[in-house]
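Render this sequence as a predicted structure.
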Amino acid sequence: MLDFSQIQKIVNDAAASQEAFLVDFTYSSDGRMQVYVDFVEGNITLEALKRISRFIEGTLGEESCQYGIDVSSPGMFSPFKVPFQFKKNIGRSVRVSCREGRVETGLLVEYVEEEKLAVERTVRVPKTVGKGKMDVVERVEIPWSDVLETVVEFQF
């Protein structure tokens, strides 16, 4: 059996062959591989997942029968794990869980790798003149060190 670094290179090459990026990869001592991939733009297709799986099997050759290979997308409720996921989801509604229990929601408008991310949301505030309230767009910048988890906030 190949070692982890050799398998990881094959998996990265397989994702790149479909212009996809690797989100997560686990490899157990009994040869089970769990590969999560996505496209930089758009959603990954079943056909692309099949081609990635076949690329891995083809590269392993006769040894492929020693491995269990599962290739899939990360899933719509999975937390972001790699920078490409943040970049891909700029302009989408996200929920960011922060240290000390704080949760920020809004449109992801900026991501600076391992430095910060920013969300914008509309809030109701009292009018400066007269009675009533008005909508104001508020920008919240979150230092990377405060971010625990970020997920797309789906509206159904």
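Summary. The chain has two domains: 4-72, 83-152. The first helix runs from residue 4 to 17.
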